[in-house]
User: What shape does this take?
Amino acid sequence: MIHPNRDRRACKLTRLLVAAILLLSIALMLIVTIGGWTKLQGMKPVNFVWCGIYLVMAVYVLRWTRGLLPIAAALAVLLIAIAAIAGFGIGGTSWYDRGHAGYAHASSLLGGSGLSADTIGTLILLLIPVELLLAAVALVGFSQGWNVELEVPDEEARRRGYRTRPSGPGAATA
Assistant: This one.
């Protein structure tokens, strides 16, 4: 069995892009979570779970698991909505409004001074294009057919660079 679509450069690039964007998303979410620890309301456990899910997805995408790509796109769209609400202040006060007089500075999870409200706002708004890119690239990857298998003779599989099952005397039979 061979997977001919996995040999294409476009598929390899898409797989790496999806994993890299997932890791970039994790980095942005962790920076916001750790740097704005005292000012985040209720989303702290969700942020860590979301980062864990993205990390597992990145690992499986690097192992050519195509089924997680639509889930990654859906989670990206959900995170876009959350980031837009937090960044633009749709639900009340935006992060940029919290930088004015009368608002306390955020403290970090590690006990030191956290990020400024403007920095947190910028990082949250930066999540929007990153997640748009993740959704688009994940859906492109889903359409590339990473799961397509072809049954070919062992000689053809070896010629294409695939490992084949041992043959000849002494080979295990199935």
In short: The chain is about 55% helix and 0% strand.
